[in-house]
Amino acid sequence: MKVGFIGLGNMGGPMAANLAREGHEVTGFDLAAPMPEGVRKAASAAETAQGADVVITMLPNGAILRAVAAEVIPAMAPGAALCDCSTVDVESARAVAEQAAAAGLGALDAPVSGGVGGATNGTLTFMVGGSAEAFDKVKPLFDIMGQKAVHCGDAGAGQAAKICNNMILGVTMIATCEAFALADKLGLDRQKMFDVVSTSSGYSWTMNAYCPAPGVGPASPADNDYKPGFAAELMLKDLRLSQQAAEAADADTPMGQLAAALYTQFVETEDGRGMDFSAMLPRFEKRHR
Ligand code: NAD
């Protein structure tokens, strides 16, 4: 396929490289990042769209996505598909999908989980909103960039799945970290805490697969001085998106709200910026009731 790829940063770069390696004709555009191997550099976002079967975007936020989409949609050929893999607000995803549909294009919101490792190894999970037709068109590309693509529903459903998942992740990480900090103060050995909780009803992905305590459980950013991994500020971005969505949908999400407040404090006034989101554990260790 002819693929336009806009946003070749930490995630988009390796995703585009994987498509090129599998023989797709990839043209890329980024304001700053270098072109990955096998990707032809375009002079503008609109140029990547010319003659493309699929245009993929992997950008920082919804405002940038809207601006790029406004430039790219008029340059795309009817019947082509615009596939946004960034994590953005549900409203922006739906607005872009509407504009694309009005121009006779397919549109998907297809945020990912799996991080930079998943992007590099082609093992991302895609959660996808949009028409079945557009999903089927882009599916061969999802199969190269990832291990799984779930068609979640209409436009915005992919972003909805992503922010709900990451709201659970943020809340669970905080719960796991505060429990470890309490266990420490109660004199409970961290390994024993892990042995019990990881096989009891308190188990979770944050405990079992991404344990925030160094030297306990499988290797995780905690074992690497809390270097990300998944940075605290990205967790905060996703928690804020969940709260923006909850407000728009009139949903009561007190735990998500508290998690957003704690990560705001951690990133903005404590030492969380640039740390993995599991560095909430040393944060709790330093604090008193
Ligand atoms: P990044 O900052 O490394 O990459 C974003 C790229 O977009 C940059 O290279 C930037 O130059 C480019 N860009 C910005 N504005 C542009 C414009 N107008 N035109 C062209 N290029 C432009 O970010 P990332 O880590 O690759 O994340 C991208 C998206 O993926 C975000 O929405 C993020 O939330 C999401 N995401 C990231 C991770 C992760 O672990 N990094 C995991 C899942 C999802």
UniProtKB/TrEMBL annotation:
Sequence similarity: Belongs to the HIBADH-related family.
The name this protein goes by in its record: 3-hydroxyisobutyrate dehydrogenase
Gene: mmsB
Keywords: Branched-chain amino acid catabolism, NAD, Oxidoreductase
Catalytic activity line of the entry: 3-hydroxy-2-methylpropanoate + NAD(+) = 2-methyl-3-oxopropanoate + NADH + H(+)
Native organism: Sedimentimonas flavescens
NCBIfam families tied to this protein: HIBADH
UniProt xrefs under Pfam families: NAD_binding_11, NAD_binding_2
Region forming the signal peptide: none
EC number: 1.1.1.31
